[in-house]
Request: fold
Amino acid sequence: MRCPDEVVLSSYLDEGLSAVERGRIEQHVAGCARCLDLLVVAYESGRGARKCPRVLQNKIKARLGLRQRRARPELKWLFASLALFLLSFAFKKYFLQFLIVAAILGFKWAMEGEGAKRAIMIFRGMREEERVNLPKSRVSSED
Amino acid sequence: MIERCIRREERAWEEFIERFSGLLYYSAKKRLQKSGMMFMQQDVEDIVQAVFMDIWEKQHLEKVKDRKKITAWLSVTAQNRALNYMRQKREMLLREEDLYKINNLRADGKGCIDEELIVGLDKCIEDFEPRHKIVLKLNIIYGKTHKEIARFMNMPMSTVATIIARKKKKLKFFLME
Reply:
């Protein structure tokens, strides 16, 4: 008997087969090491969460022509900051405390924004460049 | 989600990739390990990508009977793809007459099944019922527990335990002869 196709073989593990169909597949699998092995790995793969590298997932999405959704800016910090700012007027006794926490959250929101990240990267890049160029300039001055 | 994937909804496909790429990755990698051939991370990634491309381009999802239980089909598909991939790779090397490379492709045997054990066991259990053969193989060759076998074969655990006990006794008797 020829090996059953993927759909038939995999349906054995899905419990959706009649006794006759089950028996037919078992008849084959009992004598076919390859099919039994395929089923064992399929069974194992369904147990527990399996991870795939994020990079690979993005590659697949790109190959299928799916739009890469850009991460939404973290607005929760901004809303929390605004809420605390408004609360500071409501509870005048703790005005300063509320204001400080609102300022911290506002700062966090600003630093997590795309613009701030880009600025940090540029700044780091400039520092890195300076560090690389420094020995060269020293060498040229020694010459 | 599968129905939405068939209708080619982008969001559904993103979800599909995120949910099942790990399963495909595991299956392809495991199959390559079991085939006893040396492979690289890139090989596994190529296989996983190819499977998704196939499903997308050839609308393979329509073939699946039970759309709620798609994991087994995906895993078997990924494994078959992995086998074909390695076969093609081997043929390519043979065509280039780099036969020596083939010898070097044997891995350290990690994850491989003991061929001798399979052949020996097959001889001993020749007359057993197909169902019992599978139970014994899962227990002896793959080291599966009674619980796992019961789940795998969709039968009560007590039945599995009885089959294993009885058949092992027979095997013992057969080997002593």
Q: What stands out?
A: DSSP finds seven helices and no strands in chain A. The mean pLDDT of chain A is 80.
